[in-house]
Specification:
The protein has one domain. Helix content is 64%, strand content 0%. The protein contains ten helices and no strands. Helix 5 runs antiparallel to helix 6 and helix 6 runs antiparallel to helix 7. It is globular and about 40 Å long.
Length: 180
């Protein structure tokens, strides 16, 4: 994917973080070194887009070789920066006043980290299914898929995102994670 454009959503994430802390500012990549653009936020819908992308950037900083707009100088700063991005994203989602969305995203972060640590390569599917759930219509399908995942069965989750529109998003997630 081409470097991020100057006015992209992920550029705004970097700008906000840099304004918030000189420590985070040192981890911001130069515009020419940035890679990737909004991925799951646009799927989640306008009320949640910035928050989901900020949380996703935190996930990348924690679990990928680097974020789209951040590269922490060491593991400790990466963990702190990722936590900052998680918290900032949840605050952004809180502004929409949707408690269920906050719960879904908190569960996403926890379960996706567990999947990544256990070697299960379906965290992208979980991100996409959660983003779609936030956009609606909401039903119990995501809850059932998460429970099945916790029991070791990814079939219900994969079925939620088994369509043509999912393929490029999942491929980009895998590329960003260093899995592709």
């Amino acid at each position: 994917m081409a470097p991020v454009g100057i006015e992209s959503r992920v550029d705004r994430i970097a700008e906000r973080a840099a304004r918030g802390s000189a420590v985070w500012a040192r981890s911001v990549l130069a515009p020419t070194d940035r890679d990737g653009d909004a991925l799951f936020g646009t799927v989640a819908g306008a009320p949640f887009a910035d928050g989901v992308e900020t949380i996703y950037e935190g996930y990348l900083v924690h679990h990928a070789p680097r974020g789209r707009v951040f590269a922490a100088p060491d593991r400790e700063q990466g963990l702190l920066l990722g936590d900052y991005l998680y918290a900032t994203g949840l605050v952004q989602v809180c502004e929409a006043g949707d408690v269920e969305a906050i719960a879904a995203l908190a569960d996403l972060v926890s379960l996706a980290a567990h999947l990544r640590a256990s070697g299960a390569n379906v965290d992208g599917e979980l991100w996409l299914a959660t983003a779609r759930h936030l956009a609606g219509p909401r039903n119990d399908d995501l809850t059932a898929a998460r429970e099945a995942l916790r029991a070791g069965d990814s079939a219900a989750l994969i079925a939620l995102v088994a369509d043509h529109d999912a393929a490029p998003l999942l491929l980009e997630h895998r590329r960003l994670m260093g899995d592709a």
